[in-house]
């Protein structure tokens, strides 16, 4: 039976990460080359700069409670994305090594039956990735359509209300928003993919255990194989936890701040107005992101019981 290439499942995810400057070629990490220079521009100049000017703006609006809440509302989530990107790039080598482990025979489906068993789970992840990408792109398009107004409140050391500074600043914010949103989605869905791989490995192991033969020699051999597989799954899941634990902690802390800020903002605006509607939708998006993390984690928890 032909080996299953698990990385092929996430090839679209990896391609997008490459375009964002977050996935060096092959099994390499960041070295002194053109791609690293491109990554520096996207991460530091575009994403980092976009966040920097928004944070500086807080110093000028802190006396206006509504403006301050609005700024924190958006900026906190974007800063979290930068934190995610930092930990992601710092651990890119370990992450690639982790994915390469899936090529080992112990992680491979044994037959066509097991292939059919795990396909629905892998397809579900693909649908989650497509859905999140659609939501992210739609949000960027809607947020970008502002007449005579920048998408985000920020401070700049020049008058951005005059041509051509307005057009350049507008483009800079849209590009920054694009990189931040798409990076956030694809880092998150890659983590979901790793949890999905743990789930399908548990399915394969359970199927192997159900089909242990009664013949003494074959039974002993297969039992040892199952024990080795179980040990490899535990090691893989621990590595996934070590890679993403700080990111998940940051996600929960930031989401708590954003949800609290959202509830405060709803006291300042009419919940039935356009601004109130957008605020509620944003809060739902944050809650959904937390829910998806918990849902995939719960799936792993259910499988190991």
UniProtKB/TrEMBL annotation:
Presence of the UniProt keyword Membrane in the record: yes
Organism of provenance: Zophobas morio
GO biological process, any: signal transduction
Classification via PANTHER family: ODORANT RECEPTOR (PTHR21137), ODORANT RECEPTOR 19A-RELATED (PTHR21137:SF35)
Record's keyword terms, sorted: Cell membrane, Membrane, Olfaction, Receptor, Sensory transduction, Transducer, Transmembrane, Transmembrane helix
Name recorded for this polypeptide: Odorant receptor
GO cellular component: plasma membrane
Keyword tRNA-binding included in the entry's annotation: no
């Amino acid at each position: 039976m032909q080996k299953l290439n698990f990385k092929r499942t996430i090839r679209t995810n990896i391609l997008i990460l490459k375009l964002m400057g977050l996935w060096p070629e092959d099994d390499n990490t960041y070295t002194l080359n053109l791609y690293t220079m491109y990554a520096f521009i996207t991460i530091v100049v575009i994403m980092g700069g976009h966040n920097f000017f928004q944070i500086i703006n807080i110093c000028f609006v802190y006396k206006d409670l509504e403006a301050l809440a609005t700024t924190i509302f958006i900026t906190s989530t974007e800063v979290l994305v930068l934190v995610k990107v930092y930990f992601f790039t710092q651990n890119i080598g370990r992450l690639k090594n982790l994915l390469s482990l899936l090529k080992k025979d112990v992680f491979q489906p044994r037959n066509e039956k097991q292939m059919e068993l795990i396909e629905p789970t892998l397809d579900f992840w693909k649908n989650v990735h497509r859905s999140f990408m659609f939501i992210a792109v739609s949000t960027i398009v809607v947020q970008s359509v502002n007449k005579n107004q920048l998408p985000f409140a920020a401070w700049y050391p020049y008058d951005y209300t005059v041509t051509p500074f307005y057009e350049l600043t507008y483009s800079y914010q849209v590009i920054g928003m694009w990189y931040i949103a798409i990076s956030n989605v694809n880092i998150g869905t890659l983590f979901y993919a790793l949890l999905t791989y743990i789930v399908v490995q548990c399915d394969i192991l359970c199927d192997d255990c159900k089909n242990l033969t009664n013949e003494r020699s074959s039974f002993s051999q297969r039992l040892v194989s199952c024990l080795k597989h179980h040990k490899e799954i535990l090691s893989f899941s621990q590595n996934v936890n070590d890679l993403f634990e700080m990111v998940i902690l940051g996600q929960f802390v930031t989401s708590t701040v954003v949800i609290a800020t959202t509830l405060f903002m709803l006291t300042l605006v009419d919940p039935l107005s356009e601004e109130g509607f957008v605020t509620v939708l944003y809060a739902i998006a944050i809650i959904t992101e937390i829910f998806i993390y918990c849902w995939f984690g719960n799936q792993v928890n259910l499988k190991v019981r």
